[in-house]
Design goal:
Strands 1, 2, 3, 4, 5, 6, 7 and 8 form an eight-stranded mixed beta sheet that branches. The protein has five helices and eight strands. The chain is of the alpha+beta class and 157 residues long.
Length: 157
């Protein structure tokens, strides 16, 4: 999945992730060749030298088909866009401990806060997709109704 960050410290950064949870911990470290990374899998944990930033998915996950040469590079890909989370952030200790992080997300979801914050900006996501994909590629983007499956089951990372 190709993920784009629309604002904050990771503005303009693109990452390929396995999942696109509603809330995403994004880490920065100047000690790696690739300074930005996202903790998108349930077993991911930040290193002590990494700075953690909290982002929220700002649009539905979309699916696009890319036709490219060689043909093996073609396929269906999921995309998402994130903005810095504007609510109250958990403590640094909570964001660094995977179990505490997941529990914090479950509590946030249980009180209905995330469901009430659905201000998807589909137009801005389409602009991000258009500007971030090479013009030589053919793009067909549409909303994937199954992409909210993890949100309904409360799966956060």
């Amino acid at each position: 999945m190709s993920v784009t960050f629309c604002d904050g410290p990771a503005r303009g950064v693109r990452l390929d992730l396995a999942r696109c949870p509603i809330l995403l911990r994004v880490v920065f470290s100047d000690r790696r060749s690739e300074p930005w990374d996202a903790l998108d899998r349930s077993q991911d944990t930040p290193r002590n030298c990494e700075t953690i930033h909290l982002y929220r998915r700002c649009a539905p996950v979309t699916t696009m088909h890319v036709s490219a040469r060689p043909r093996s590079a073609s396929g269906w890909f999921k995309c998402a866009a994130y903005r810095v989370y504007s609510g109250a952030w958990p403590s640094d200790a909570t964001m660094r401990d995977t179990h505490r992080w997941q529990e914090w997300c479950r509590r946030l979801q249980a009180c209905g806060y995330l469901e009430n914050q659905k201000s998807y900006e589909l137009a801005s996501v389409q602009l991000v997709l258009r500007s971030s994909i090479e013009p030589a590629l053919t793009i067909n983007a549409h909303r994937n109704p199954k992409s909210r499956e993890g949100e309904q089951r409360g799966l956060f990372v």
